[in-house]
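Morning run. Coffee first, then this:
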Amino acid sequence: MTTETQEIICGPCDFREIAMPAVVWCPTCDEGLCDECSGHHSAAKATRGHKLINSDHYKEMPRKMIEELNKCTKHDERYELFCPNHEIHCCVQCVKEKHANCTGVTLLNKVIENIKSSAMVSTITQKLDKRLDGLMKLKKNRTENIDRLDKQSSELCADFRRMRKEMDLVLDEFENTLNEQATSVRKTQSIIVNNSITQICTHESIYKEMHSGLQTVLAYGSDFQVYSAIKKIEENIMNEDKKTELFLKNNNGLQEINVALECSQQLSALLSKDISLATVRTSNSTLACDLNIFDNLEAQKLSTTNRTAVSELKLKQFFQATSRCWSTNSVPPDFINITSIVPLPSGQTVMTDYGGKLGILLFNSNGGLDIRYDNLGTPHGSCLISDSVIAVSFPLNNNIKLLQVYGLSCTIKNTFKFDQMCFGLCVNSDGNIVAATRKPDDGLLLINLNGEILKRIGLGLPLINYVQCCKNKIIVAELESKEITMYDHEGNKIQTFTFEGEHDTRNICFDKHGNIFVSALQTAKVTVISEKDDHRQDILGITDRFRGPKAIVYDQKNNTIIVANKDGQHSAIYDIVYK
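And here it is:
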């Protein structure tokens, strides 16, 4: 990511077909200047306010970072405007085509003014520092694991030699075998761990490169170049985080490997030399290194605006499912119960029917129903695990299934069986599944991706139906209740929100700012509770074609809210407009 080192030619001289080397660079005019032209540039009224930098400093800046956003690739125009609703830079044509109805569109230069001292720069720098620190810890941990294996292998053999003092010569042959086993384990595991260190070094190099490039841009770049660099780094960080997350989950080289002497019961008897006296046992455990690399999913995207309060939901798209599902299969609406929604990164959307026979429904990016899977059981809750893997609860079967949805195919990756019914599901910031149960003593189950129950959080609530996590908060809703309740991760109550009207089956979700969206089945409302001051606002109702809104979800990728009626026949995607 380094700038090309060829000589920079003075722009005004080059226009006059004179080849003069540039000694300074004007980020505002985006061209180099020789000594003479720089003097005129600083004296002219139109350009005397431009800040010039040494041409050598300009060469040091990483060009791939600072030139990524020079022009709109679609319209070949400079980015001059910023849309706060979608938090994106735009050219004039982009605004006309895609943001004509967006409120608050402003000049990009105004938004990025004083960006070097902004929280945006501080946040991206902290992200880079955090990841570099985490990768250094991981590399150190892997190296220490190899050293520990060496030490344990030596201690293992020493322990055996101490035992040999009371043994017969029949153990000589066994000692050689034992040493071979220990050496084999060490060699095999060292290869695995060294391979993981190689991959760690690759990630570390990428983050160092971004970190170094950012510091250079901060030192010598213009505000726009800093903004461009940050946007490029933010994209790279999200891509690298996905790779690192997959690497941490699937790489055997990230398990803590230990060896120990495991003696048989016959060791002291020494009945014959054919008896197996001891073996080298290898144990793998979860990585003990606290990396603290990943941010909460809600905080993955940097924001250049302070707009966090919800103003309205603007209709973006309806789902069209009637012709291929409800009518064709003659399923009465009263027997349909859409309880959860999962937007997939592919643009597809999954819905679950807990009341009828529709099973799991898969919609395409245009809102049309592609296919349904009705042979897996009766699904209730669902949540996204990775790009193509979702977790779905089947309360009547006392299990949770991990399903991989790719194209139109749906395959079972794993099935976790429990001794109780699980309903609503979500994923916390550690990547573990949080499941709502109907047992007051259990309340919520914290489940890892191997299906192991890590923790039971008793809330004393008998009818928990839905659960959602946001940073260090958990919020739950009970069946046919007028309340939703917020807890910390230890199960301590933080706050209760009470609603007027009928007892509703309420579903909830959070947006990236922590605002709470609540759907109410009986009162036919979608309400937003402000993260800042708990202010409530009804933002959808019967006039918006919703007579029984139930399932609701926030799509972080597109910053949208998806709502589905209980009968599924009125489902829609809404853009969130902030104020």
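Residues 296-302 have pLDDT under 50 and may be disordered. Good start to the day.
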